[in-house]
Amino acid sequence: MQIYITGSLAFDRIMTFPDKFSNHILPDKIHILNVCFLVDGLDERFGGTGGNIAYSLALLGEKSVLLSQVGKDFASYDERLHKVGISVEGIRTIETEFTAGAYITTDQSDNQITGFNPGAMKYPSQYDMSRIDPSEALGIISPGNLGDMIDHPRYYRENSIPFIFDPGQQIPAFTGEQLLEAFDGAEILITNDYELEMILNATGLTKDEVLDRVAYLITTLGEHGSVVNCNGEVTDIPAVPVDDVVDPTGAGDAFRSGLLKGLAMGKTVADSCKLGSVCAAYAVEKSGTQEHSFTLEEFTARYEASFGPLE
């Protein structure tokens, strides 16, 4: 099975402020806010939903094609993708833009100030979808360029290619009609519980009406695992125990990688979510969305410790 991942590629540029923001903001002058925070250096990490999903999927031994867009500063990320065996054939380069980037400053109270530059993500990937073989393809649409998130599901529907719709943080950017069109006919709609409520509010649909339009609804619940709903039949999938939760930021994307791996193996959606739970556990144990690693032997042992034999 060839997996196509629609989603963002981005640099996460992380800074730490060795004080509290509140010590440098005058409440009575908030209407003319003008502050400068001297940070303790800069840590640059690879991120973006598409990149994160492809990364963990590569650790699991699956090849994927990223349908994304990057800018003139992409060289180091490009080198990393080649190193881990991720295809770049579907990535469009916009020479006049920078690759999407998040600039995150965290203070001593774990408060954060974030600026996000979409950069090249403002442009569609323009991948020639006719190159996809419908008989052996699976698509996932994760947060990225809005046009791609609408156009790619449409192509998959018209060509009977199964796809997963994962709107994530882009939900507020869609109208209710656009959201409904995008996930209509999906094999799987996947969200966390808060995002699901946002979709219901935006579309005016009930959960049962959403289930009439997709084969499966997966709702992730963080440390409480996930829930698979198919025609009203609900299956609870537990989270895998973690000794030390360092950073939950990349857990959702890692979960999706495990889900895709399971589907590529021919497993049921519920059993595929178990692989997702294991993959997510590795992600939360490291700071950053692509800092975890494991061998297939280690992954299998951890899976079997929680769920029994992996066949």
TrEMBL record:
Is tRNA-binding given among the entry's keywords? no
InterPro entries tied to this protein: Carboh/pur_kinase_PfkB_CS (IPR002173), PfkB_dom (IPR011611), Ribokinase-like (IPR029056)
Q: Name one Pfam family in it.
A: PfkB
- Carbohydrate kinase PfkB domain: from which residue to which, for each copy? 42-291
- What this protein is called in its record is Carbohydrate kinase family protein
**Would the keyword Transferase be found if you checked this record's keyword annotation?**
yes
- GO terms of molecular function: kinase activity
Q: Which domain of life is it from?
A: Bacteria
* SUPFAM superfamilies the UniProt entry points to: Ribokinase-like
Question: Could you list the residue ranges forming a coiled coil in this record?
Answer: none
Q: Which PROSITE patterns match?
A: PFKB_KINASES_1, PFKB_KINASES_2
Listed A to Z, the keywords are: Kinase, Transferase
